[in-house]
Write a structure and sequence with these properties.
Layout: H1 9-20, H2 23-43, H3 47-71, H4 76-100, H5 102-107, H6 109-130, H7 139-158, H8 162-185, H9 196-207
Length: 208
């Protein structure tokens, strides 16, 4: 004899909640996977796929932190993985630009080298002091992320580098220098530090 289907709303809600708590991690995993996908699209000349994958990755970067905070699942490991996913994504973007638009890299060689040097300094400072890369998620990092997204879409969707590309290099250099200063200020590795002022407040509280 067939048994009537049971409806357990509380169990269903708990299952939904469990899956929802994994959304920030899934967004991070997607960005790790999107990087190689961008390279494949660039090597095969598929601009539509490249832009689609990239826009989805940027969207995932915007919402993962919001979801994590809303669901109260923010952890140091999650935020550090978020930073590493961003790094993987944009390294793949740079390689894609090198393959598809090498003339752009030559045209902006000097400001690009300055930005790369500032990034290397930021990594070196953090690794020397903490033995690991920083994961501040500062306001300047968000601003740089927006400018990177605009310049990347401008380049691959409209074949235009110009002001967007130069602007993102300038913002990136200033952001890296800010993070070098934050690393110098903070006594211990700390995640989600929005500004130099916030870093100084943490230092005073820690060293009090």
């Amino acid at each position: 004899m067939l048994q009537p289907l049971s409806f357990r709303p509380m169990r269903n809600l708990r299952s939904i909640a469990v899956w929802a708590r994994q959304l920030p991690l899934l967004c991070i995993v997607y960005r790790f996977a999107a990087g190689p996908g961008l390279l494949w699209a660039a090597w095969h000349g598929n601009t539509t796929l490249f832009v689609s994958l990239f826009v989805a990755a940027v969207f995932s970067d915007i919402v993962d932190g919001m979801i994590a905070r809303r669901l109260q699942v923010v952890t140091a490991n999650l935020r550090e993985a978020d930073s590493r996913a961003d790094l993987c994504l944009y390294l793949c973007v740079i390689v894609a630009i090198w393959h598809v638009y090498p003339t752009v890299l030559r045209e902006f060689q000097l400001p690009l080298l300055i930005t790369v040097a500032s990034q290397a300094l930021q990594w070196l400072t953090s690794l020397t002091k903490y033995g690991r890369l920083a994961s501040y998620h500062s306001y300047s990092a968000k601003f740089w992320g927006v400018s990177l997204a605009i310049s990347t879409v401008s380049l691959f969707a409209f074949d235009y580098a110009g002001i967007p590309f130069l602007t993102t290099l300038l913002i990136g250099t200033l952001h890296n220098l800010e993070e070098v200063a934050m690393t110098a200020i903070l006594p211990v590795w700390t995640f989600d530090v929005k500004t130099i002022r916030a870093a100084w407040a943490i230092r005073q509280k820690t060293c009090a």
